[in-house]
Design goal:
This protein folds into two domains: about 160 residues, 3-Layer(aba) Sandwich (Rossmann fold); about 70 residues. About 45% of the residues lie in helices and about 10% in strands. A six-stranded parallel beta sheet has the order 3-2-1-4-5-6, with helices on both faces. It has about 250 residues and is an alpha/beta fold. The radius of gyration is 18 Å and the shape is globular. The chain contains ten helices and six strands.
Length: about 250
């Protein structure tokens, strides 16, 4: 049985934990840090309205096929779904991306943290052997708004967002490269990517980072394992096994 830690006692315990070198832990936002149930309706609506406001056509948002994609690529695909030709999209795309961002900032929303997230971030933030960041398919303004509204922005030294990217793999590649260089990490495996979709796991594995899956979104533990997760958890509730996976091993 996994043992659940008290946050205050865990923070004190970190003083006696072993050190296997600095690690940078990068968390996805939607479905990983923040409940998908609390954001899903807003996510679909910001894309639908962003496209409709700029081109006069609403794209279909059912079924939603874009979990784990980056926002600019979702915009491009939805423009195709709305019936625009591939040739006409480049001239419209940046306007749609900006509108998708603005719509989110203007709408009423109440993102909610997944169970255990705040406790885990407090504990990791107390460790001198870890640096925390977000690695998200969200545009920067959208990501910052979600972190602000849920009260967790201060935990993150790094924020890697999707502005300028049309592939999650490219975003992950550059985030890992930046972390290795900035923190003098031993190798790419010293970057840990925590996510809730197969695309998160595939991008981490392809770029030689350690992938941790968390089944708090719409994918099962088995689907995340098959996509390349080294370890999969049912939640980010602090526990012995999760700490050990993140390199917090008691001496």
């Amino acid at each position: 049985m996994r043992s659940i830690f008290n946050v205050d006692s865990c923070a004190k315990l970190l003083q006696s934990l072993g050190n296997s070198g600095l690690k940078v832990v990068l968390f996805d936002i939607d479905g990983t840090l923040i409940s998908k149930q609390s954001t899903e309706a807003n996510e679909r609506e910001r894309f639908r309205r962003g496209v409709a406001d700029e081109v006069g056509r609403s794209p279909p948002t059912e079924p939603w096929l874009y979990d784990g994609m980056v926002d600019p690529e979702i915009c491009r695909r939805l423009l195709l779904e709305a019936g625009l030709s591939a040739e006409s999209i480049p001239g419209l795309l940046q306007r749609v991306i900006l509108r998708v961002e603005t719509v989110y900032l203007e709408m009423e929303k109440r993102p909610v943290l997944n169970h255990g997230v705040d406790e885990l971030l407090k504990i990791l933030n107390a460790s001198s052997d870890h640096r925390l960041g977000v690695l998200t398919g969200n545009l920067r303004a959208v990501a910052e708004e979600k972190l602000r509204l849920t009260g967790i922005r201060s935990y993150f030294a790094e924020t890697f967002c999707s502005n300028g990217y049309f592939s999650r793999g490219d975003l992950v590649r550059d985030a890992i490269r930046d972390c290795v260089g900035r923190y003098g990490l031993r190798d790419k495996n010293s970057v840990v990517i925590v996510g809730d979709t197969p695309r998160d796991m595939e991008a981490a594995r392809k770029n030689e980072a350690k992938a941790i899956g968390v089944a708090t979104g719409f994918y099962t533990m088995g689907e995340l394992r098959r996509a390349g997760a080294a370890v999969v958890f049912r939640s980010l509730q602090p526990c012995n096994e999760l700490f050990e996976t993140l390199g917090l091993e008691a001496s």
